[in-house]
Write a structure and sequence with these properties.
CATH architecture of one domain: 3-Layer(aba) Sandwich
Largest sheet: 5 strands, parallel
Shape: globular
CATH topology of one domain: Rossmann fold
Number of helices: 22
Radius of gyration: 24 Å
Number of strands: 7
CATH superfamily of one domain: P-loop containing nucleotide triphosphate hydrolases
Order of helices and strands: HHHHHHHHHHHHHEHEHEHEHEHEHHEHH
Strand content: 5-15%
Oligomer: single chain
Distance between the termini: 74 Å
Helix content: 55-70%
CATH class of one domain: Alpha Beta
Strand order of the largest sheet: 3-5-2-6-7
């Protein structure tokens, strides 16, 4: 069927260039004009790729199911369907379909890695380790596997592996992301040996490669944080203020702040004895609003448009609209408080904080590849400066809507602080709140997913002391930096 193959070929060109709507048009027109032709698995899989690129979960799932009706032993389709179940929060089905894919192809690396990550994110660390080791056997030169496994097993990286990784970094041509993981491993190894200068040298290289791995996207989003939203957040012009009565009945909780400030533990605590759906770090509002401002220099926000977009995302994520509460932990949402309150008038916000110097280095030392401003001390400080200005503005504007949670206070007075948190959120506190670490079915996909598997620890005030000397050149530039 050359006609079908030609349509797939044309669509694939647009998919490669991320022009998904153009690809969709080609495929749908072909299907409409050739109703007498039996569409094959390649056609439906290409339609899945288009839908996935458009973040259309419903149709992504539908086209994969069509693929499996044609060939129920297609391990690639099974793996991708598992990915969708994972996005929907259906962990049981996600695991089932990953395992199905693997049973059909025991050396299918993608399914092996996906299972390793799933088990890691659900706290099944022994299982995760076994799958990472299996993946390393199949792909011994993939450095990211060593990095992920080193987060589970601190003793996994030894001198022999360090020497092997150094040789790989010097002799093999690697993607920037893989180079970044390698230098993060080396930095952590030097930290353990208390070689501060070597650690910082490796950290700089790791972060430089991290930025380069998504250079165009990072440059674009860095410009957005530094030059666009920071100039618009407090002078938005709302139009088409049609209200969604469904949203008015919901009492959502938005957790925001800086990365590595206690947001994950806060989310886990709120969900520990409550059946509250969490969207995690879905960046729903940022995705909608940033896209508006990319196309329009004005500060107009069409609330009917935003509300409709949010509603469709909720449907795609299978959120039960009858539930009166959900959690959104997209950390950048402090920029969008005005917009969120227009859509969800009953929303409440938890602003997580910690010692600011510690926070700087906790961010810099973490591999946060999708957050453009985290790859240099200069960019971190600039973003933080904007964060302080924005959050101060909104705390003054909505003092009863924002609860500030300090990580140090939570670690020293967990019962007292969690009771205050629950009271603010209109939730009922019980002793089970502090037993969160005993739950076995919690999915945590953030950088803190290993830490929060244990009970709340005492705050370590000395952990980042050796690094604070690196801030001396910025003390005059930012008055919120401690001068001592």
């Amino acid at each position: 069927m050359p006609g079908q193959l030609e349509a797939i070929k044309k669509a694939s060109f647009f998919i490669e260039n991320k022009k998904y709507n153009e690809a969709k048009k080609i495929l749908l027109e072909f299907a409409e004009n050739n109703k007498n032709i039996k569409l094959d698995i390649k056609f439906f899989f290409t339609m899945y790729l288009v839908s996935n690129g458009l973040k259309d979960i419903k149709n992504s799932k539908r086209y994969l199911e069509k693929c499996l009706k044609i060939d129920d032993k297609n391990h690639i389709a099974l793996n991708n369907l598992a990915n969708i179940y994972l996005k929907e929060g259906n962990l049981i089905k996600a695991e089932k379909f990953y395992l199905k894919a693997l049973n059909l192809n025991k050396n299918y690396l993608l399914a092996i890695v996906n299972l390793a990550i799933l088990y890691q994110d659900t706290g099944k660390l022994d299982k995760s380790k076994r799958f990472y080791l299996r993946a390393i056997e199949l792909a011994p030169k993939r450095i990211s596997l060593y990095f992920n496994l080193s987060r589970i097993d601190e003793n996994f990286i030894d001198d022999e592996k360090i020497n092997y990784l150094i040789k790989l970094l010097k002799s093999e041509k690697k993607e920037f992301s893989e180079l970044s993981y390698g230098y993060f491993i080396l930095a952590n190894y030097e930290r353990k040996k208390k070689n501060f200068d070597s650690e910082m040298n490796y950290l700089k290289r790791a972060n430089d490669y991290n930025f380069q791995s998504r250079k165009l996207a990072n440059q674009e989003t860095l410009n957005y944080w530094n030059n666009i939203i920071v100039k618009k957040y407090n002078n938005l012009n709302f139009v088409n203020k049609k209200k969604n009565t469904i949203f008015e009945k919901i009492n959502p909780l938005f957790i925001f702040g800086l990365p590595r400030s206690g947001s994950t533990i806060t989310e886990v605590l709120l969900r520990s004895n409550n059946d509250i759906y969490s969207f995690g770090e879905a960046s729903i509002f940022n995705g909608i609003i940033a896209n508006i401002f990319r196309k329009n220099e004005k500060s107009d926000i069409n609330l009917e448009f935003v509300g409709d977009k949010v509603y469709k995302i909720f449907l795609a994520r299978n959120f039960d609209m009858k539930k009166n509460r959900f959690i959104d932990k997209s950390l950048e949402n402090f920029f969008y408080i005005d917009v969120i309150l227009k859509i969800f008038p009953n929303a409440k916000f938890i602003n997580t904080t910690r010692n600011i110097e510690d926070n700087i280095f906790a961010i810099y030392k973490q591999t946060l590849s999708k957050i453009s401003w985290t790859h240099s001390i200069e960019d971190i400080l600039r973003y933080m400066d904007n964060y302080f200005k924005v959050i101060d503005y909104f705390i003054k504007k909505y003092p009863d809507k924002i609860f500030t949670l300090k990580l140090e206070d939570l670690s020293s007075k967990p019962k007292e602080i969690t009771k205050k948190l629950y009271n603010f959120c209109d939730l009922i506190w019980t002793d089970e709140v502090l037993e969160f670490h005993k739950k076995k079915d919690v999915l945590i996909s953030t950088a803190s997913n290993i830490q929060v598997r244990d009970k709340i620890q005492k705050y370590d005030f000395d952990r980042y002391k050796p690094y604070k000397i690196l801030l001396r050149n910025f003390l005059d530039q930012y008055n919120w930096l401690p001068k001592k």
